[in-house]
Every structure is written in C-alpha cells, then in structure tokens.
C-alpha cells in the first residue's frame, strides 16, 4: 500500500521551525515564503533553497499545496509585535512581557 505524501507551502516561514516539524513527520515542503533576509538565509542553510523572498501583502499567486501553514509573528522582530528586547525582560524578570498600558 502506497502512502500519500502531503505537500506543504509555508507562509511567513521565518527560519523554518514549522517546516522542520512538518518535514520530520513526513510532509514534503515544496515552498516557503518570507521577506526577512536573515530568516531566508537561515532557512536556506537548514532546509534548502525552495524559499522565496516575497511580501505576501502583494502576492497574487501561490504554489498549489495540499497543506498551507503560516507561522505567527515573532514578538521581537515583527512590525506587529512589541519589539521588546529580551535584555529588558532579563533585567526585570518579575514583570511579565506584554503590552504596556497607556
């Protein structure tokens, strides 16, 4: 009996953590998209060259895949995140990270 291999397209892939997890359980990563150069370089080094530098806000076509995954924004790097330095969290460990009140 032949086992079907599901194809995966990873959006907002970052350094590839979600792709790696899916790959380890048998999925075939056919494409990945991010627009952060450092993340793309890391992804290529760890998972291969099937990643493209693209801003998904302006994307018109995506590769066909059985499964589409997308990573949540990293708080320290995303323009939607708090951009709070880990150093600040270490200096004040009793204050939990989160949004500051106005």
Automatic annotation (TrEMBL):
Enzyme Commission (EC) number: 2.1.1.37
Active-site residue numbers: 74
Any single Pfam family the record assigns to this protein: DNA_methylase
PROSITE patterns linked to this entry: SAM_MT_C5 (PS51679)
BP terms from Gene Ontology: DNA restriction-modification system; methylation; negative regulation of gene expression via chromosomal CpG island methylation
Enzyme class, first EC level, given as a word: transferase
Keyword Cell wall biogenesis/degradation: no
Record has Methyltransferase as a keyword: yes
GO MF annotation: an example: DNA binding
Keywords annotated in UniProt: Methyltransferase, Restriction system, S-adenosyl-L-methionine, Transferase
Record InterPro entries: C5-Methyltransferase, C5_MeTfrase, SAM-dependent_MTases_sf
Family named by the database record: Belongs to the class I-like SAM-binding methyltransferase superfamily. C5-methyltransferase family.
Protein name per Swiss-Prot or TrEMBL: DNA (cytosine-5-)-methyltransferase
């Amino acid at each position: 009996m032949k086992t079907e291999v599901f194809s995966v397209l990873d959006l907002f892939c970052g350094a590839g953590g979600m792709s790696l997890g899916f790959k380890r359980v048998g999925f075939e990563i056919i494409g990945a998209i991010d627009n952060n150069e450092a993340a793309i370089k890391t992804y290529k080094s760890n998972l291969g060259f099937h990643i493209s530098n693209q801003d998904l806000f302006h994307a018109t076509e995506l590769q066909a895949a059985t499964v589409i995954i997308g990573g949540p924004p990293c708080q320290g790097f995303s323009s939607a995140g708090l951009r709070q330095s880990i150093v600040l969290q270490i200096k004040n460990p009793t204050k939990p990270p989160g949004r500051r009140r106005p």
